[in-house]
Amino acid sequence: MTTDDPTTDEPTTDERCESCGMPLTHAGRYCENCAPGGVLQSFEERFERMTQWVIRSEGLDRDTAQARTREHMRTMPAWRGHPGLG
Ligand SMILES: [Zn+2]
């Protein structure tokens, strides 16, 4: 009976939003942007918002921003395999 196991689990405090990947500041699966009031927004809503955000933050044109958003969302547990990501 060893209590000093060297592979002790570190507390997983680096939880991330399953929709956009942002670090979470509260317990849960999604951030406040993706799920205001705890309810996850629709794919269309999220896709549009994220595209707008990419356009603003990276200065990309709409087509490029959409492609970038699609790529990002494909890696997110909330949207992985979504038909809208084709
Ligand atoms: Zn989010």
Provide a quick synopsis of the model.
The protein has two helices and no strands. The chain has 86 residues and is an all-alpha fold. The structure holds zinc ion.
Structure characterization notes:
It is a single chain. This protein has helices spanning 43-58, 62-74. The chain has one domain (15-81). The protein is mainly α. It contains two helices and no strands. The termini are far apart. The model has no long low-confidence stretch (mean pLDDT 89). Helix 1 crosses helix 2 (62-74). The protein is globular, with a radius of gyration of 17 Å. Residues 17, 19-20, 22, 30-31, 33-34 line the site of zinc ion (ZN).
Give the helix/strand layout.
Blueprint: H1 43-58, H2 62-74
Helix pairs in contact: 1-2
Zinc ion binds near residues 19, 30, 31 and 33.
Tags for this entry?
single chain, 86 residues, mainly alpha, 2 helices, 34% helix, globular, binds zinc ion
Provide the helix percentage.
Answer: 25-40%
Count up the helices: 2
Number of strands: 0
- Percent strand equals under 5%
Query: How many domain modules?
Result: 1
Q: Overall mean pLDDT score?
A: 89
Hetero groups: zinc ion
| Structural category | mainly alpha
**Shape assignment:** globular
Unreliable stretches: none
Question: What's the story with the biggest beta sheet?
Answer: none
Taken in chain order, the helices and strands follow as: HH
Rg from C-alpha positions? 17 Å
Measured between the Cα atoms of the first and last residue, the distance is 52 Å
